[in-house]
Amino acid sequence: MPLQVQGEVLSIRRVGAYQAMTVVAPGIPELTRPGHFVALAVGGPESSMLLRRSFAVYDVKDRGVYGGTVEFVFAVHGKGTEWLSRRQPRDPIDIVGPLGKPFRLPKTAVNATLVGGGYGSAPLLPLATVLRERGCRVDVVLGAGSADRLFGQLEAKRMSDSIAITTDDGTAGTRGRVSDVLPGVLDKAKTDVVYACGPMPMLRAVSDLCAERGIPCQVAVEEAMACGIGVCMTCVLPVIGEDGLTRMVRSCVEGPVFLGDRVRWDDVGTVPADAVGAPRS
Q1: Which fold is adopted by the domain 111-222?
Q2: Which of 17, 124, 251, 271 is deepest in the core (most CB within 10 A)?
């Protein structure tokens, strides 16, 4: 079960185009696994911003001088994240976690390729650590619009067998997108499983490439999660179940990790007419 705690900002630092915040959050680190996320209250106790902001967990430490900590990465997009970016060490912050379903881990050593877009690479880095501990080969592909929007490339290089970098503008690595270099990586690494996190168009492209090759693919979707606990229904998307039926599932509860070939990418943002419970004309 997730915990709600009154945490405290330990540090906040700028990393390229992003902010990395570490929060002291007793009890949450011990429960967190790669792929989990946390939801934070923003704006302060008298704010009109009622909805929480959700972020994938980048790193946890079970204990230390200040207690267990959770670190996450975010970009400033609106009032909520702008408020977060102005927090200072020792500021109080309300945090709930861990939330969602984490990545499924292999039971035996496999060749795993991790694909991250922008700061979507953050939850893949702790996953890489766990996979290496299980004897897996780990290859990494990171992409972003520009060099300053890449995240974790040095850390990924240290823990992977190979790393490929792409940027839309060519300021780092190969000019293009991750889908341009991914086929070569999959073939060279003899990939058994793919894990991906990033923008939805990237996840769709990665899922399609894996489906063509018959490679299992797990994707951590970046849907807007207003509550983080499955109440508001803002993060639903159509996913095919094991029984072959499509259901509108909540990314924050049934996800955020899904099998890539189960997501109906063409219908994301809609309610397919054949989905269970869909309205009928």
Answers
A1: Rossmann fold (3.40.50)
A2: 124
